[in-house]
Amino acid sequence: MSRKITRRKFMATTAAGAALATTFKFPTPAIAQGAPFKLGLLTVKTGGLAQGGIQMEQGVLTWLKEHGNKMAGRNVEFFSADTGGKPAGTKTKAQELIERDKVDVILGPLAAFELLAIDDYIEQHKTPTLSLAGADDLTQRRPNPYFLRPSACSSQAMHVMGHYAAKEMGKKKAITIDWDFAFGYEQEGGFQAAFEKDGGCVVKKLWTPLGTPDYTPYIAQIADCDVVCQGFPGGVPLRFLKQYANFGLKYPLVTGETGGDDALLHSFGDEAVGQISCCPYTLDLDTDGNKRFIAAIQKQFNVVPGFYAAGLYVNCDVVEAGLKAAGGTTDNKEKFMAALKAVDLKDTPRGPIKFDHLGNVVGDFYVRVCEKRPNAPYGLKLWNKTVKTYKDVSQFWTWPEKEFLAHPVYSRDYPPLKKC
Amino acid sequence: MSRRFIVFVAGFVALVTLPYWMPGVYYLNVSSQILYYAVFALGLNILAGYGGLVSLGHAGLFGIAAYAIGYMLQAGYGHPVAILTALVGGMASMALYAVLSLRATGIGFIMITLALGQIIWGLAYRWISITGGDNGINLHGRPHPFGFAINSPVAFYYTTLVVFLLALASVAVFVRSPLGAALMGTRDQPRRMTALGYHVWAIRFWACMFSGLLTAISGVLFVYYTQFISPQALDLTASAEVLLMVISGGAGTLFGPIVGAALVIVVKSVVSGFIERWNMLLGAIFVVIVILMPEGLVPGTTRLWRLARRKAGARASRKTELEAASKAEAKP
Amino acid sequence: MTFWLLLTVNSITFGGLLFLLAAGFSLIFGLMRIPNLTHGSLFMLGAYFGATFAGGMLAITFNFWIAVLMATILVAIFGTVIERFLLRQLPGQQMAQVLVTLGISFIVADFCLMVWGGDPVRVDTPESLTGFIRYGPLVFPHYRLAVIVIAAVATVALWLLLDRTRLGAMIRAGVDDPDMARVVGIRVSQLFTIVFALGAGLAAFAGIIGAPILSVYPGLDQDMLPLALVVVILGGSGSLLGSFVGSIIIGFIYNFGQALLPELSYFVLFLPMLVVLIVRPQGLFGRFVP
């Protein structure tokens, strides 16, 4: 239960500090080198999105513990806020972090709709925000200069997946199935665009309502294709794959970063074997950075990390690198943000990363296949084995930026279905 | 000067001077939130508390007003037009709501309103051309009532306070009016009311419209505060939350909903920063309220206070009685 | 052809599962007039308990069916406690009942999150029922067919209980007229406790039976509760036949509605419910207008 003690300690320290500061209205001193660096996290720890949210916090806490609670030589004061997964709550907690706790950087929030709710607010307050939230347009057609995304935008991994399915797997007819919301649209849109660019054709796009317990009405419509692409978030892939296998469907499954997340490996059963996923992070990446990260999170929380935990850990790496480059001070917000955008790291748990001029990552993406491995590390019975690595993938895939941005953002009807 | 009057004046003064004694902008903002949720709860209380019609779909109406503002502003209209559309649209939706829901009472009413709320939620997700789906609509800026800009937290707080006080006053007037009395009559004895010649349906309908107006107003304040609207604001948990504010504070009382709103918002926004299991805490608070004061915090506290005073008074008077008796005995 | 057949069979399966969930709610509401908004959480709690016993989380892994029994009994006991100490103090006070049942559902949901974490929990299909039958191009898993059988057995058992036993007669009397039932000497408050425990147990039973299909995850309670409410409203409260017919109808609407009218997938359940409520507020077989 060491995790509880750590968090409570942070809570107690920051609560006491915040209470003192606000009750006695201490004037905020000019941030000297000795003053603590304030890191805020907007995450979801209650309700349906809690799965990813809890992992996000674990990623940050692991990084802080491993680095002795210091960033670029400064002590870190960490504020973790539970938004409840509702945009109004996200706004309130963002205000708490920025106005009450005076954080220098915000990590998170989790969901795209949460990020959109605070889009203007973080720009107004010039608070650099590093989030996993995939909303494409925040680094494309409506870029926010204070937003940085070291993980991936919604369509980024799916572009790779679509290309792989067409070129490497030789598939010609795909059916996509996803939740009926923006993250789903952007994922499947990306898959479709890349799949069709390389000669494939999407036959049908199935959209399921959020929170459906039983996917059978949709599974029943999957026929006459040679590959199925799913992009369900959170814990949904578990039941979808089970229900899919239950009905004896044999079409190969491909997915993005949430549908095959390594953190779900311990929950998956045999029905996940054979699923191909493309993710910006993979457990089997054999680098020092990844090995250290996995060892640290195993030691502290005894969990197998996935996209969420690794994503936040990498976010912390970026913040520290940016802080160092800015000379250890965030007094000049524009300078700090510029330093963050210029970060170029070689050995993060997800491999080398850098950013394009819109604040989205350019990095490696891994295509893995899920296989049975009875003696896999960390007590797992399944393993996502990397079969191909795509280096320096940007959010525009292989299209020129101008051409890509001229299209509308991926939505329910874009790209449109064509005759196959 | 009665005790009650002193309490009211003290409360009023505290609210008006709040920005000066509240430690920090963050808590000022939380107070603004409490105030407009209080308006929302007051609106629901008209139906649920005074009318006996529990609605589990009120967040839908709240959302319609908020979306109206978002949509109109995005379409390029000015704030006055947007606000007018929100209020009119909110009340028109409420009229439709009322016509459909008032066909039943009790749990039937609850279920119809739940269904309507869910339908509106579904529309918010699917009618992407108007609502933007789950990407929502972003607002830029706030209106200028009478020429004052209300972008700063302090200015917004005072605007919300004024609206809140007006809402509270209007509810107080309503409750003491013949219509209010008739509404409570239809809650307690609908058949007798009909026998006496009252048009029960019409009374309830107009109560719904008043409730709809207050709900729409709170929706407008909400969206101007948050500067964002998306379907999450109208889902079932949002409707359940405002109902819980009304019930926990004391349904059918004037100040109950306000206390309930303060309770829920404080636990959600402030306590959640210190206690990780705040959801469980909130649930536990509700259970404790039900055990100790099932009628709600406000009436329950009043009752317990009176009980304590009566007991103390009884003890004191018994003490003096005994003393007098023993003195009388001691006298030869 | 496969499509229609598959969806038809699945409608009956899903309907069966819904019946198990809704029957408890219908009985509780019918007899005690309490809208038990904790019902979804009890479903989820039963599923988590069952997953713990059968899934090897404890030192011993129990047989699936034993786990089902244990989970059902545990939650039935929990239900008894809730009824005895909380709900019994609030006869007729609907507001307070809503407050306490919602409060308990918050506590249970957060408790589950605290104990089992945010990750979804998988429950393996029991050994004897893995696999599927093939009938030409139609493939249907054994377990889902088994759910139909289980639901049918439960329906018959409940019907026998209500129709052929003294207890059932007392329950039916209590549903029709609680005051008269008291007058003729029926211990209505004892009955309430039994019925609430039965309802809670049924919900938990449904949860763990459904777990191999739906898995167990935070938010399961909020996904299932509206479905239970829709069934009870459609079928009519207090009527077992109503719950049965209602579940089957909702099972069909859920499957075919979503498959054929994907544009209306959010409204597919609530529109019919709205129509029924407006046209016939007591539901199809309701014994009283709620």
General description of the model:
The complex is a heterotrimer of chains A (420), B (332) and C (290). Chain A is an alpha/beta fold. Chain A has two domains: 2-127 and 286-292 and 307-349, Rossmann fold, CATH 3.40.50.2300; 156-284 and 363-406, Response regulator (Rossmann fold, 3-Layer(aba) Sandwich). Helices cover 37% and strands 20% of the residues of chain A. The model of chain B has no long low-confidence stretch (mean pLDDT 89). Chain B is built from 15 helices and two strands. Chain B has a two-stranded antiparallel sheet. Chain B is 77% helix and 1% strand. Chain C is mostly helical and 290 residues long. Chain C has one domain (2-224). Chain C is built from eleven helices and two strands, in the order ααααββααααααα. Chain C is globular. The model of chain C has no long low-confidence stretch (mean pLDDT 87). Chains in contact: A-B, A-C, B-C. The interface between A and C is large, with 40 and 42 residues.
Count of DSSP-assigned helices of chain C: 11
Specify Rg of chain A, calculated over alpha carbons. 21 Å
Query: Which topology of the largest domain in chain A does CATH recognise?
Result: Rossmann fold
Helix content of chain A: 25-40%
Quaternary structure annotation: heterotrimer
The biggest chain-chain interface is: A-C, 40 and 42 residues
Beta-strand segment tally of chain A: 15
Uncertain runs of chain C are none
- CATH level 1 name of the largest domain in chain A: Alpha Beta
The CATH superfamily of the largest domain in chain A is identified as Response regulator
Topology, number of strands of chain C: 2
Structural class designation of chain A: alpha/beta
Order of helix and strand elements from N to C terminus of chain A: HEHEEHEHEEHEHEHEHEEHHHEEEEH
Helix share bin of chain C: over 70%
Low-pLDDT windows of residues of chain A: 1-6, 16-32
What general outline of chain C do the C-alpha atoms trace?
globular
Count of spatially separate domains of chain A: 2
